[in-house]
């Protein structure tokens, strides 16, 4: 690697002569070693899934959760250095709560992604800190309804700043992925971690970004998510599948970020394994 | 020992995306004497080997009560553990004052996890050089957590950290299916057997070098469930347990063949 031995890679926030920040690139390497995380934005919600590598037989099964709820309607999953991810989640919760305190309304997924993107970016600016060793996937469902504002008096402005434009649709499912550099984009389907290449290839085959919006339903997306995690998984190692989903208020999760029910998860796993076996036979 | 440019502080990633200072801190845990923790459906126990600096000195404590329902076992830098232990005590007390009940164990463990993570991301700080096993009970039952200097915390069924702890972990893995339904005494005996696996040759468990800590939920006479407060047992209080695994009848160890050589079973002697 050209970075080594030049001295430009020994501290954070240092530009090399060709304009790169090597410490951020190395942080990305930490992400690439972590278990695969994916997110799928579909017609009526968002699904998050993660491959939890079982590092020891002594771990308590299903006790160590990797997908966090940041606000009622927001979930975060991450790949890379797990303690960094937990810090990220705590900060995201603080942001969501601060937003509610200030604006008396839940933070939108886009706004949370923006806040957290800014937070991650700040950790690339100074020699006194290091970048986050994670890539985070933020999924949420911004209500399409008129929400009663927290502690409201009246219903807020009907139009103009802070108001809604009549006749326009608002809210819906949203998915963002934030990298160690602070860079973030909105995605139809996002993947990060060790198996991201294989996962991306599978995500691209799904109908997620058509002009009429994604065709995939939430339940289909859960099954696809499970299948993709199985496809992206490196065979010999043991792993646990963890999945969460978010729908609108009239959907299965009633607008909340929740763990996918066990029955559906097991069904999705069964189908994923079946698909794996069929592929093997080919 | 080899040197490299990327291991001087905890804010520098190596080209492979590793942080060496954190990995070195994890090595400090392996310098500490071994501690074992096991959880069942009703109890969670911690057992530890204590070391003395010299013949005439006292033994370094390994188990610390945090609150009525939580205790920890430490491996690594004792002074770092004291900082974490004080912090945990304060948090538990604060929670009790505010909410009038015990702090959930996971909440507590997450707090030290966050605290430790910050030390791995800021220049001028160093990671904690200590690993912990946190045992506690809450409304969901008994729990056992492992804490690492990286800030990683994971809930375990059973675990061992410290010097030569791999041997103890192997014992625990072999017997993992038995723990859930173990009673209090059975759990302690499993802990001591695991501990013995990690002893160096010609060392024995004695009343001086062995500590046992227990907490759990017990059924009261009126049928309600109560917390058995975390208590540390030392000296004469651990004698019977040590004797019960002394002439190892291979009791719960089950796995025959593997067990030979550990049944020395001679008289108790003072640690040398």
For the largest sheet of chain B, list the strands in their spatial order: 8-1-2-9-10
- The gyration radius over C-alpha positions of chain A equals 20 Å
Which structural class should the secondary elements of chain A be placed in? alpha+beta
Characterize the main sheet of chain B: 5 strands, antiparallel
Strand order of the largest sheet of chain A: 8-1-2-9-10
> Which pair has the most extensive contact?
A-B, 39 and 38 residues
In angstroms, what is the radius of gyration of chain B? 19 Å
Low-confidence stretches of chain A: none
Query: Approximately what portion of the residues of chain A adopt beta-strand conformation?
Result: 15-25%
How many helical elements of chain B? 7
- Please give the alpha-carbon distance between the first and last residues of chain A: 39 Å
Distance between the termini of chain B: 31 Å
State the helix count of chain A: 6
Order of helices and strands of chain B: HEEEEHHEEEEHHHEEH
User: In percent, how helical is the residue content of chain A?
Assistant: 25-40%
**Strand pairing plus helix content of chain B: what structural class?**
alpha+beta
Quick check: average pLDDT of chain A?
A: 91
Number of strands of chain A: 10
Q: Poorly predicted ranges of chain B (pLDDT <50, ≥5 residues)? A: 251-272
| Beta-strand fraction estimate of chain B | 15-25%
Structure report:
The complex is a heterodimer of chains A (282) and B (272). With 282 residues, chain A is α+β, with helices and mostly antiparallel strands. Helix content of chain A is 33%, strand content 22%. Chain B has 272 residues and is of the alpha+beta class. In chain B, a hairpin with a 2-residue loop joins strand 5 and strand 6 (141-147). In chain B, helix 2 (78-99) crosses helix 3 (105-118) and helix 6 packs across helix 7 (239-246). Chain B starts with 19 loop residues before the first helix and ends in a 26-residue tail after the last helix. Mean pLDDT of chain B is 90; it is low at 251-272. The interface between A and B is large, with 39 and 38 residues.
């Amino acid at each position: 690697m050209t970075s080594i031995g030049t001295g430009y890679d020994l501290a954070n926030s240092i530009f090399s002569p060709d304009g790169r920040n090597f410490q951020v690139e190395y942080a990305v390497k930490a992400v690439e070693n972590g278990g695969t995380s994916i997110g799928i934005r579909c017609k009526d919600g968002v699904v998050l899934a993660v491959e939890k590598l079982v590092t020891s037989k002594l771990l308590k099964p299903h006790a160590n959760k990797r997908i966090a709820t940041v606000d009622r309607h927001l979930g975060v999953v991450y790949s890379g250095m797990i303690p960094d991810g937990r810090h990220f989640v705590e900060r995201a919760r603080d942001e969501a709560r601060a937003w509610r305190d200030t604006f008396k309304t839940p933070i939108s997924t886009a706004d949370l992604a923006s806040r957290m993107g800014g937070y991650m970016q700040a950790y690339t600016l100074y020699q006194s800190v290091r970048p986050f060793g994670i890539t985070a996937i933020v999924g949420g469902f911004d209500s399409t309804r008129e929400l009663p504002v927290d502690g409201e008096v009246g219903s807020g402005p009907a139009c103009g700043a802070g108001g809604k434009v009549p006749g326009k649709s608002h809210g819906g499912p949203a998915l963002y992925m934030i990298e160690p550099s602070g860079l973030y984009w909105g995605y139809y389907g996002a993947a990060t971690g060790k198996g991201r290449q294989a996962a991306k290839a599978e995500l691209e085959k799904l109908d997620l970004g058509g002009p009429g919006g994604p065709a995939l339903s939430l339940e289909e997306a859960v099954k696809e998510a499970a299948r993709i995690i199985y496809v992206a998984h490196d065979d010999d190692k043991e792993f646990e599948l963890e999945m969460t989903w978010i729908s609108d208020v009239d959907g299965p999760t009633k607008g909340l970020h929740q763990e996918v029910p066990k029955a559906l998860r097991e069904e999705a796993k069964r189908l994923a394994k079946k698909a794996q076996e069929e592929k093997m036979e080919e | 020992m080899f040197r490299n440019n990327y291991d001087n502080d905890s804010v520098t990633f190596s080209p492979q995306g590793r942080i060496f200072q954190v990995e070195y801190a994890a090595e400090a845990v392996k310098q500490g004497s071994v501690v074992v923790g096991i959880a069942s459906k009703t109890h969670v126990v911690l057992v530890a080997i204590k070391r003395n600096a010299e013949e005439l000195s006292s033994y370094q404590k390994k188990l610390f009560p945090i609150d009525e329902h939580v205790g920890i076992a430490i491996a690594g830098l004792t002074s770092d553990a004291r900082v974490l232990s004080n912090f945990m005590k304060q948090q538990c007390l604060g929670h009790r004052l505010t909410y009038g009940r015990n702090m959930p164990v996971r909440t507590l463990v997450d707090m030290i996890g966050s605290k430790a993570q910050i030390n791995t991301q800021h220049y001028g700080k160093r990671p904690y050089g200590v690993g912990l096993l946190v045992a506690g009970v809450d409304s969901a039952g008994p729990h056992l957590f492992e804490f690492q200097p990286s800030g990683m915390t994971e809930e375990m069924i059973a675990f061992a950290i410290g010097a030569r702890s791999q041997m103890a972990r192997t014992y625990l893995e072999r017997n993992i299916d038995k723990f859930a339904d173990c009673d209090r005494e059975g759990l302690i005996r499993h802990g001591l057997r695991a501990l013995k696996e990690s002893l160096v040759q010609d060392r024995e468990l004695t009343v001086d070098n062995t500590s046992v800590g227990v907490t759990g939920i017990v059924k009261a006479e009126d049928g309600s469930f109560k917390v058995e407060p975390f208590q540390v047992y030392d000296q004469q209080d651990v004698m019977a347990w040590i004797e019960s695994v002394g002439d190892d009848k291979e009791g719960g160890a089950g796995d025959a063949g593997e067990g030979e050589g550990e049944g020395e079973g001679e008289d108790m002697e003072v640690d040398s």
